[in-house]
Amino acid sequence: MSVSAPKKVVLAYSGGLDTSIILKWLQTEFGAEVVTFTA
């Protein structure tokens, strides 16, 4: 069974460096649209 790459990802975004890196990585690695929630 193969797993397909996500087309859209919702990310709870703290605004920190680690979350910023993951955000760009998801876009680059999977071509995913990243929707963020910042509280």
From TrEMBL:
Example of a GO cellular component annotation carried by this entry: cytoplasm
Residues covered by the Arginosuccinate synthase-like N-terminal domain: 8-38
Top-rank lineage group of the source organism: Bacteria
Keywords carried by this UniProt record: ATP-binding, Ligase, Nucleotide-binding
One MF term in the entry's GO annotations: argininosuccinate synthase activity
One Pfam family it belongs to: Arginosuc_synth
Gene Ontology biological process terms, A to Z: argininosuccinate metabolic process; L-arginine biosynthetic process; urea cycle
Claim: ATP-binding is one of the keywords in the record: yes
PANTHER family attached to this UniProt entry: ARGININOSUCCINATE SYNTHASE
Protein name as it appears in the record: Arginosuccinate synthase-like N-terminal domain-containing protein
Organism: Hyphomonas atlantica
